[in-house]
Protein backbone atom coordinates (compact mmCIF):
# COMPACT_ATOMS: atom_id res chain seq x y z
CA UNK A 1 0.00 0.00 0.00
CA UNK A 2 1.56 3.31 -1.06
CA UNK A 3 1.72 6.28 1.28
CA UNK A 4 -0.91 8.91 0.37
CA UNK A 5 0.52 12.09 -1.10
CA UNK A 6 0.19 14.99 1.40
CA UNK A 7 -1.09 18.38 0.32
CA UNK A 8 1.28 21.08 -0.88
CA UNK A 9 1.49 22.99 2.41
CA UNK A 10 2.26 19.85 4.41
CA UNK A 11 4.88 18.76 1.87
CA UNK A 12 6.46 22.19 2.06
CA UNK A 13 6.52 22.01 5.86
CA UNK A 14 8.09 18.53 5.79
CA UNK A 15 10.72 19.78 3.35
CA UNK A 16 11.58 22.75 5.57
CA UNK A 17 11.95 20.53 8.63
CA UNK A 18 14.12 18.02 6.76
CA UNK A 19 16.45 20.75 5.46
CA UNK A 20 16.83 22.29 8.91
CA UNK A 21 17.52 18.90 10.50
CA UNK A 22 19.67 17.06 7.96
CA UNK A 23 21.32 19.92 6.05
CA UNK A 24 21.69 22.65 8.66
CA UNK A 25 22.13 20.23 11.56
CA UNK A 26 19.53 21.72 13.92
CA UNK A 27 18.18 19.59 16.76
CA UNK A 28 14.48 18.79 16.78
CA UNK A 29 13.91 21.11 19.75
CA UNK A 30 15.62 23.96 17.88
CA UNK A 31 13.46 23.37 14.80
CA UNK A 32 10.34 23.33 16.97
CA UNK A 33 11.26 26.71 18.46
CA UNK A 34 12.19 28.19 15.08
CA UNK A 35 8.93 27.09 13.36
CA UNK A 36 6.67 27.45 16.40
CA UNK A 37 5.87 23.73 16.44
CA UNK A 38 5.92 21.12 19.17
CA UNK A 39 8.93 18.79 19.29
CA UNK A 40 6.62 15.81 18.81
CA UNK A 41 5.23 17.46 15.65
CA UNK A 42 8.74 17.93 14.29
CA UNK A 43 9.48 14.28 15.03
CA UNK A 44 6.32 13.20 13.16
CA UNK A 45 7.18 15.38 10.15
CA UNK A 46 10.67 13.85 9.92
CA UNK A 47 9.20 10.34 10.17
CA UNK A 48 6.64 11.17 7.48
CA UNK A 49 9.38 12.56 5.23
CA UNK A 50 11.27 9.29 5.57
CA UNK A 51 8.17 7.28 4.63
CA UNK A 52 7.60 9.46 1.58
CA UNK A 53 11.16 8.85 0.38
CA UNK A 54 12.16 12.47 0.82
CA UNK A 55 15.30 11.49 2.79
CA UNK A 56 18.20 9.79 1.09
CA UNK A 57 21.48 9.27 2.92
CA UNK A 58 24.51 8.78 0.70
CA UNK A 59 27.85 8.21 2.43
CA UNK A 60 31.00 8.73 0.40
CA UNK A 61 34.23 7.30 1.83
CA UNK A 62 37.76 7.64 0.45
CA UNK A 63 38.37 4.15 1.84
CA UNK A 64 35.42 2.40 0.22
CA UNK A 65 37.81 0.07 -1.58
CA UNK A 66 39.14 -1.10 1.79
CA UNK A 67 35.62 -1.81 3.05
CA UNK A 68 34.97 -3.75 -0.16
CA UNK A 69 38.13 -5.83 0.39
CA UNK A 70 37.11 -6.52 3.99
CA UNK A 71 33.69 -7.71 2.87
CA UNK A 72 35.23 -9.82 0.11
CA UNK A 73 37.64 -11.75 2.32
CA UNK A 74 34.98 -12.32 4.99
CA UNK A 75 32.54 -13.71 2.40
CA UNK A 76 35.26 -15.95 0.91
CA UNK A 77 36.31 -17.46 4.25
CA UNK A 78 35.03 -18.46 7.68
CA UNK A 79 36.14 -15.12 9.14
CA UNK A 80 33.61 -13.07 11.09
CA UNK A 81 35.41 -9.78 10.48
CA UNK A 82 38.47 -8.19 8.88
CA UNK A 83 40.21 -4.81 8.97
CA UNK A 84 42.31 -3.65 6.03
CA UNK A 85 44.71 -0.71 6.15
CA UNK A 86 45.73 1.25 3.05
CA UNK A 87 49.14 0.39 1.61
CA UNK A 88 50.68 3.85 1.45
CA UNK A 89 54.34 2.94 1.74
CA UNK A 90 56.68 0.31 0.39
CA UNK A 91 58.59 0.39 3.65
CA UNK A 92 57.92 -2.87 5.54
CA UNK A 93 58.29 -1.27 8.98
CA UNK A 94 55.86 1.55 8.14
CA UNK A 95 53.37 -0.97 6.81
CA UNK A 96 53.68 -3.07 9.97
CA UNK A 97 53.12 -0.04 12.21
CA UNK A 98 49.97 0.90 10.26
CA UNK A 99 48.59 -2.62 10.66
CA UNK A 100 49.62 -2.59 14.34
CA UNK A 101 47.73 0.66 14.87
CA UNK A 102 44.60 -0.78 13.24
CA UNK A 103 44.84 -3.97 15.30
CA UNK A 104 45.30 -1.93 18.49
CA UNK A 105 42.14 0.02 17.66
CA UNK A 106 40.22 -3.20 17.00
CA UNK A 107 41.49 -4.72 20.24
CA UNK A 108 40.35 -1.67 22.22
CA UNK A 109 36.86 -2.04 20.72
CA UNK A 110 36.84 -5.74 21.66
CA UNK A 111 38.07 -5.63 25.27
CA UNK A 112 35.79 -5.64 28.29
CA UNK A 113 36.58 -5.48 32.01
CA UNK A 114 37.36 -8.97 33.26
CA UNK A 115 38.75 -10.23 29.94
CA UNK A 116 41.81 -12.44 29.70
CA UNK A 117 44.02 -11.63 26.68
CA UNK A 118 46.39 -14.34 25.48
CA UNK A 119 49.18 -13.22 23.14
CA UNK A 120 52.16 -14.53 21.22
CA UNK A 121 55.46 -12.81 20.68
CA UNK A 122 56.51 -11.43 17.32
CA UNK A 123 57.04 -8.17 15.48
CA UNK A 124 53.35 -7.78 14.60
CA UNK A 125 52.24 -8.12 18.22
CA UNK A 126 54.97 -5.73 19.30
CA UNK A 127 53.57 -3.19 16.81
CA UNK A 128 50.10 -3.64 18.31
CA UNK A 129 51.41 -3.05 21.82
CA UNK A 130 53.29 0.07 20.63
CA UNK A 131 50.01 1.56 19.41
CA UNK A 132 47.80 0.85 22.43
CA UNK A 133 46.55 4.16 23.87
CA UNK A 134 43.42 3.52 25.96
CA UNK A 135 41.51 6.48 27.39
CA UNK A 136 41.45 4.79 30.78
CA UNK A 137 42.48 1.62 32.57
CA UNK A 138 40.81 -1.66 31.62
CA UNK A 139 40.57 -4.48 34.16
CA UNK A 140 42.15 -7.22 32.06
CA UNK A 141 44.67 -9.99 32.55
CA UNK A 142 47.36 -10.51 29.89
CA UNK A 143 48.93 -13.94 29.53
CA UNK A 144 51.36 -15.59 27.07
CA UNK A 145 50.31 -18.36 24.68
CA UNK A 146 53.86 -19.67 24.43
CA UNK A 147 57.16 -19.85 26.22
CA UNK A 148 59.70 -17.21 25.28
CA UNK A 149 63.01 -16.66 23.61
CA UNK A 150 65.07 -14.02 25.37
CA UNK A 151 67.42 -11.66 23.60
CA UNK A 152 65.04 -9.72 21.32
CA UNK A 153 62.19 -7.50 22.41
CA UNK A 154 59.73 -9.18 20.04
CA UNK A 155 60.64 -12.81 20.82
CA UNK A 156 60.42 -12.37 24.60
CA UNK A 157 56.68 -12.86 25.00
CA UNK A 158 56.81 -12.09 28.74
CA UNK A 159 58.21 -8.67 27.87
CA UNK A 160 55.28 -8.03 25.50
CA UNK A 161 52.78 -9.33 28.09
CA UNK A 162 54.18 -6.91 30.67
CA UNK A 163 54.15 -3.94 28.29
CA UNK A 164 50.59 -4.66 27.15
CA UNK A 165 49.34 -4.97 30.72
CA UNK A 166 51.04 -1.69 31.66
CA UNK A 167 49.50 0.16 28.73
CA UNK A 168 46.01 -1.20 29.42
CA UNK A 169 46.19 -0.81 33.17
CA UNK A 170 45.73 -4.55 33.62
CA UNK A 171 47.62 -7.40 35.25
CA UNK A 172 50.37 -9.48 33.60
CA UNK A 173 50.73 -13.21 34.25
CA UNK A 174 54.12 -14.50 33.12
CA UNK A 175 55.30 -17.96 32.10
CA UNK A 176 58.90 -18.69 32.99
CA UNK A 177 59.64 -21.33 30.40
CA UNK A 178 61.59 -21.57 27.15
CA UNK A 179 59.74 -21.72 23.87
CA UNK A 180 61.51 -24.96 22.89
CA UNK A 181 62.30 -27.83 25.25
CA UNK A 182 65.31 -30.04 24.57
CA UNK A 183 63.06 -32.92 23.59
CA UNK A 184 59.42 -34.09 23.76
CA UNK A 185 59.87 -35.68 27.18
CA UNK A 186 61.22 -32.46 28.66
CA UNK A 187 58.38 -30.55 27.06
CA UNK A 188 55.90 -32.90 28.78
CA UNK A 189 57.64 -32.36 32.11
CA UNK A 190 57.65 -28.57 31.74
CA UNK A 191 54.00 -28.25 30.73
CA UNK A 192 52.98 -30.34 33.76
CA UNK A 193 54.87 -28.16 36.22
CA UNK A 194 52.30 -26.39 38.40
CA UNK A 195 53.54 -22.86 37.69
CA UNK A 196 53.58 -23.38 33.90
CA UNK A 197 50.39 -25.44 33.74
CA UNK A 198 48.54 -22.68 35.61
CA UNK A 199 49.51 -20.12 32.98
CA UNK A 200 48.66 -22.42 30.07
CA UNK A 201 45.26 -23.21 31.62
CA UNK A 202 44.57 -19.50 31.97
CA UNK A 203 45.53 -18.99 28.31
CA UNK A 204 43.16 -21.82 27.29
CA UNK A 205 40.33 -19.97 29.02
CA UNK A 206 41.19 -16.58 27.46
CA UNK A 207 38.39 -14.50 26.03
CA UNK A 208 40.62 -12.79 23.44
CA UNK A 209 43.67 -14.18 21.65
CA UNK A 210 46.05 -11.98 19.66
CA UNK A 211 48.67 -13.61 17.44
CA UNK A 212 50.92 -12.90 14.51
CA UNK A 213 51.10 -15.02 11.37
CA UNK A 214 54.61 -15.89 10.28
CA UNK A 215 56.27 -17.09 7.10
CA UNK A 216 58.74 -19.98 6.86
CA UNK A 217 60.31 -18.86 3.61
CA UNK A 218 64.01 -18.13 4.23
CA UNK A 219 63.53 -14.48 3.31
CA UNK A 220 61.28 -12.35 5.49
CA UNK A 221 60.81 -15.01 8.18
CA UNK A 222 61.29 -14.33 11.88
CA UNK A 223 60.64 -17.98 12.75
CA UNK A 224 64.34 -18.73 12.43
CA UNK A 225 65.03 -16.07 15.07
CA UNK A 226 63.22 -18.35 17.53
CA UNK A 227 65.31 -21.47 16.98
CA UNK A 228 68.23 -22.21 14.68
CA UNK A 229 67.01 -24.48 11.87
CA UNK A 230 69.58 -26.04 9.50
CA UNK A 231 69.45 -24.75 5.93
CA UNK A 232 68.65 -28.27 4.68
CA UNK A 233 65.66 -28.47 7.03
CA UNK A 234 64.38 -25.09 5.86
CA UNK A 235 64.24 -26.34 2.29
CA UNK A 236 62.75 -29.63 3.47
CA UNK A 237 59.96 -27.82 5.32
CA UNK A 238 58.94 -25.94 2.20
CA UNK A 239 59.06 -29.22 0.26
CA UNK A 240 56.80 -30.83 2.88
CA UNK A 241 54.18 -28.17 2.20
CA UNK A 242 54.83 -26.25 5.41
CA UNK A 243 53.60 -22.75 4.77
CA UNK A 244 53.12 -20.84 8.01
CA UNK A 245 54.19 -20.29 11.58
CA UNK A 246 51.30 -19.77 13.96
CA UNK A 247 51.71 -19.70 17.75
CA UNK A 248 55.26 -20.96 17.01
CA UNK A 249 53.81 -24.10 15.36
CA UNK A 250 54.71 -24.94 11.79
CA UNK A 251 51.51 -25.23 9.75
CA UNK A 252 51.01 -26.95 6.39
CA UNK A 253 49.13 -25.43 3.46
CA UNK A 254 46.19 -27.66 4.43
CA UNK A 255 45.92 -25.93 7.80
CA UNK A 256 47.23 -28.87 9.83
CA UNK A 257 50.08 -28.76 12.34
CA UNK A 258 53.13 -30.24 10.59
CA UNK A 259 54.73 -33.50 11.68
CA UNK A 260 58.09 -31.97 12.55
CA UNK A 261 60.29 -32.42 15.62
CA UNK A 262 60.27 -28.76 16.70
CA UNK A 263 56.47 -28.81 16.96
CA UNK A 264 56.70 -31.66 19.48
CA UNK A 265 59.16 -29.68 21.62
CA UNK A 266 57.10 -26.51 21.90
CA UNK A 267 56.14 -25.20 25.31
CA UNK A 268 52.98 -23.60 23.99
CA UNK A 269 49.31 -24.17 23.44
CA UNK A 270 48.30 -25.98 20.27
CA UNK A 271 46.44 -23.65 17.85
CA UNK A 272 43.30 -25.77 18.26
CA UNK A 273 43.24 -24.95 21.98
CA UNK A 274 42.25 -21.30 21.45
CA UNK A 275 39.15 -22.21 19.46
CA UNK A 276 36.85 -21.36 22.39
CA UNK A 277 38.07 -17.76 22.65
CA UNK A 278 35.40 -15.14 22.02
CA UNK A 279 37.72 -13.48 19.50
CA UNK A 280 40.94 -14.68 17.88
CA UNK A 281 42.71 -11.85 16.04
CA UNK A 282 45.45 -12.60 13.52
CA UNK A 283 47.79 -9.75 12.52
CA UNK A 284 50.03 -9.74 9.44
CA UNK A 285 51.61 -7.31 6.98
CA UNK A 286 53.34 -7.87 3.65
CA UNK A 287 52.35 -9.74 0.49
CA UNK A 288 54.84 -12.51 1.38
CA UNK A 289 52.40 -13.44 4.16
CA UNK A 290 49.68 -14.42 1.66
CA UNK A 291 50.44 -18.15 1.67
CA UNK A 292 50.87 -18.30 5.47
CA UNK A 293 47.56 -16.49 5.95
CA UNK A 294 45.86 -18.92 3.60
CA UNK A 295 47.23 -21.86 5.61
CA UNK A 296 45.95 -20.33 8.88
CA UNK A 297 42.55 -19.72 7.28
CA UNK A 298 42.47 -23.34 6.10
CA UNK A 299 42.98 -24.36 9.72
CA UNK A 300 40.18 -22.02 10.91
CA UNK A 301 42.56 -20.77 13.60
CA UNK A 302 41.43 -17.11 13.55
CA UNK A 303 38.04 -15.43 13.22
CA UNK A 304 39.37 -11.89 12.66
CA UNK A 305 42.19 -10.65 10.45
CA UNK A 306 44.01 -7.31 10.44
CA UNK A 307 46.23 -6.78 7.41
CA UNK A 308 47.19 -4.24 4.76
CA UNK A 309 45.67 -3.69 1.32
CA UNK A 310 48.54 -5.27 -0.59
CA UNK A 311 48.45 -8.37 1.58
CA UNK A 312 44.68 -8.92 1.42
CA UNK A 313 44.81 -8.55 -2.38
CA UNK A 314 47.46 -11.29 -2.51
CA UNK A 315 45.45 -13.51 -0.15
CA UNK A 316 42.33 -13.12 -2.27
CA UNK A 317 44.32 -14.07 -5.36
CA UNK A 318 45.36 -17.29 -3.61
CA UNK A 319 41.80 -17.99 -2.46
CA UNK A 320 40.60 -17.54 -6.04
CA UNK A 321 42.99 -20.30 -7.13
CA UNK A 322 46.04 -18.44 -8.40
CA UNK A 323 48.70 -20.73 -6.93
CA UNK A 324 51.51 -18.64 -8.38
CA UNK A 325 50.26 -15.40 -6.86
CA UNK A 326 52.63 -13.42 -4.68
Automatic annotation (TrEMBL):
Residues 62-317 form the Sugar-binding domain. Residues 10-51 form the RNA polymerase sigma factor 70 region 4 type domain. One of its GO terms (biological process) is DNA-templated transcription initiation. Keywords: DNA-binding, Transcription, Transcription regulation. GO terms for molecular function: carbohydrate binding; DNA binding; sigma factor activity. SUPFAM superfamilies: NagB/RpiA/CoA transferase-like, Sigma3 and sigma4 domains of RNA polymerase sigma factors. Belongs to the SorC transcriptional regulatory family. This is Transcriptional regulator LsrR. It comes from Pseudosulfitobacter pseudonitzschiae.
Amino acid sequence: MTEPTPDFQLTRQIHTVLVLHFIEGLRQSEIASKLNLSTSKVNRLIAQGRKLGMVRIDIESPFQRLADLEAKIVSATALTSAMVTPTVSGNAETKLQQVGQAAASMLMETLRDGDVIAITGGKAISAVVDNLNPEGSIDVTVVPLTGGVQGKFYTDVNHLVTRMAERLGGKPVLMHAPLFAENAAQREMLTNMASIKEVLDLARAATVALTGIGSVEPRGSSYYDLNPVPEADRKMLVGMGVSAEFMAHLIGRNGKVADYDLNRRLVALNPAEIGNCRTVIGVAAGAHKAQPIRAVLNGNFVDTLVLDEETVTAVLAHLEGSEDAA
